[in-house]
Amino acid sequence: MGGIALDRATRGPAVGERTAAIVWSILTKIGEPAVLWNIFPLHPHEADDPFSNRCHTRAEREATWPLLTALIAMIKPRRIVAIGRDAGLALNNIDIPVEVVRHPSYGGHAEFISGVSQIYGLANTDDAQQTLDL
Is 112 within 8 Å of 131 (Cβ atoms)? Predict the structure, then answer.
């Protein structure tokens, strides 16, 4: 990182995040390298409240689009797996095959695991039903 010091943005013990735990639980099983990237790669938050969360705007996504296209040009993926409908729609006009899976939040974890398992030819297991301990 060229000597850049990184500090935590929060205080106290690390807190597990359910969506990330679900994503990482399946990524460890695909047996291939994966690059994770958000359509909008920054943390959108309400004004003066950096610990809040909000959806990014179309203008914000368009402003960071060159970062995504540069990353794709460097990595040259054979396919992109979009996590969620919004990501799939944002990637609609890209020249690489895009497969969309259900986002694992808000009760979609079983469909997410099933979708990724189908794309990567993973054995159908009971992982979609498992409860994650965070």
Answer: no
The tens digit of pLDDT for each residue in 15-61 reads 788 888 999 899 999 988 888 898 888 989 999 998 888 989 999 99
Residues with Cβ within 8 Å of 80's Cβ and at least 6 positions away in sequence, in order, are 72, 91, 94, 96, 97, 98, 99
Token digits for 113?
A: 């695991």
122 token code pair: 């993973």
CA–CA separation, 125 and 134 (whole Å): 21
Q: Considering only CA atoms, give the Rg of the chain.
A: 16
Cα gap 87→90, rounded to integer Å: 5
Residue 87 pLDDT > 50, yes or no?
yes
φ, ψ for residue 83, nearest 5 deg: -95, 100
Mean pLDDT of 69-89: 93
Give the long-range contacts of residues 94-100, CB within 8 A, separation 24 or more: 96/72
Prediction pTM value:
0.77
